[in-house]
Write a structure and sequence with these properties.
Serine Threonine Protein Phosphatase 5, Tetratricopeptide repeat, 280 residues, mainly alpha, 72% helix
């Protein structure tokens, strides 16, 4: 209790003698009720002093630099909590979207396997679209000397792709499909893999293999659902499904084109495709 009186006396002295004279004097013979009454008076005086300090401003009142820093820290912590919560919400949304799209792709693959007469029990769970969760970046390692032949590998990759494109442009669709299939096997996950799958689907469709084309278009889309090839791959998948008599699935796929890629060139072709398929 004495420490409180001393501290209050220091504050009162900093503000002015008039306020200090109003502090109640404590005596050794006070009862508990008297002490409580004195505390009520002190609390009222502290509140009045706080208002006086605020009214006096930073030049005449107590220093406010530390209070400003604490306030800023509180604001930063609140913003960090808000951003963390937002990241959690977005992560859940992305996981839900990926799971839904993966299930849809798995359903299409199941139907294609049925149409081909394959063993649907051997399919297993579909792979997550986009490869699933991105693994953390590996720890940095000291730079090593560049291996010889790196430039030749890039040149070979482009040369193999160009050879398959040349076969397709020459009208040799069977050879083009074979070359694109070999390219995807040789360079999986490369920058041209989705394009190669799409072109393989076009070659198979031109050669009359709508089932193989549908699977190739599905692989082109699921391998890079955010890539530049994805909208037209999904559109061509709908066309292949329609050619196979899977009108309902084709119409649903056309709806996915519009929902996923609004404003794209592929989305602009959806109304015409729906008319051809007589979609509801």
């Amino acid at each position: 209790m004495r420490g409180l009186v001393v501290a209050l006396g220091l504050v009162l002295a900093a503000v002015g003698p008039a306020a200090a004279q109003q502090a109640p004097a404590l005596s050794a013979g006070q009862t508990l009720g008297d002490v409580r009454a004195d505390l009520d008076v002190l609390n009222r005086q502290i509140a009045e002093l706080r208002r006086a300090l605020v009214a006096a401003g930073t030049g005449k009142g107590l220093p406010t630099a530390s209070a400003t820093a604490l306030t800023r820290l509180d604001q930063l912590e609140a913003e960090l909590r808000r951003l963390t919560n937002r990241v959690d919400v977005l992560t859940n949304d992305v996981n839900r979207i990926v799971a839904d799209a993966t299930n849809r792709a798995g359903d299409i693959e199941f139907r294609l396997t049925e149409l081909e007469g394959g063993d649907v029990s051997a399919l297993g769970a579909p792979e997550p679209l986009g490869g699933g969760v991105t693994p953390p970046a590996p720890a940095p390692t000291p730079p090593a000397a560049a291996p010889t032949g790196t430039g030749e590998l890039a040149v070979s990759e482009q040369a193999d792709f160009d050879a398959a494109v040349a076969a397709a442009e020459a009208g040799d669709n069977a050879r083009a499909a074979t070359l694109f299939e070999a390219f995807v096997a040789a360079y999986p996950g490369g920058p041209l893999a989705a394009e190669a799958q799409f072109r393989r689907g076009e070659a198979l469709a031109a050669n009359g293999d709508q089932r193989g084309a549908a699977r190739a278009f599905l692989d082109a889309f699921s391998g890079a659902p955010e890539g530049p090839v994805a909208p037209k791959a999904l559109l061509r998948l709908a066309g292949a499904l329609g050619a196979l008599g899977q009108t309902n699935e084709a119409c649903l796929t056309l709806g996915e084109v519009t929902a996923r890629y609004p404003g794209s060139e592929a989305a602009g072709q959806v109304p015409g495709q729906k008319q051809v398929l007589a979609c509801p």
